[in-house]
Amino acid sequence: MNEWQIAAAVLIAALVPCGWVCLRASFAEGVVGVQLAGTLAALALLVLAEGEARQPFADLAVVLAVLSFAGTLVFLRFLERQR
Amino acid sequence: MSGRDAMVFGLLGLGVSIELVACLGVAAMHDVYDRLHYVAPSVLGALLIVAAVWVREGPSMISLKATLLGAFLLIASPALAHGTARAARLSERGDWRAQVGDEIEVEEP
Lengths: 83, 109
Known about the structure:
The structure holds two protein chains of two kinds. By secondary structure, chain A is mostly helical. Chain A is 84% helix and 0% strand. Chain A has helices at residues 3-13, 15-24, 27-51, 58-81. In chain A, helix 3 runs antiparallel to helix 4 (58-81). In chain B, helix 3 runs antiparallel to helix 4 (61-93).
């Protein structure tokens, strides 16, 4: 494994605490976990693309970041309506 | 190991470490607003990782995509943090603005 693959593995492992927050905490706190998980996953894909020397894979990271942003906005709308 | 490799290692390690700190902070805090504070450093970590890609590859297509990703995160993450805090306050109190009982000086409209 080169250093980029190790970095990607660490970033993917960092998704576990975010998932734990989503599962165990309140809805609002889970949205925070989803927000951070989106950033971590996008970075993991970018680092993997660099580590595997496959530049087109970096497109996935950009697309995931945009979709994660849109998805979190939808969860925020649900959160606003929840009382 | 050349100087450029050392710089790549440093930037990548620092970026991933900041992401880990952000992740552990989000997991360790007990309130939505406290957790939100730890999302902000993740953008700094992302920018360091983008810088590591730039140092390793120079001007190339993957560097351009990494820059695009970093710029998007730089813009989107604060907006999402603001939106999350606003939505959490709306769901708690029904209004995001400061109320009279909040011990904050409220201007009368």
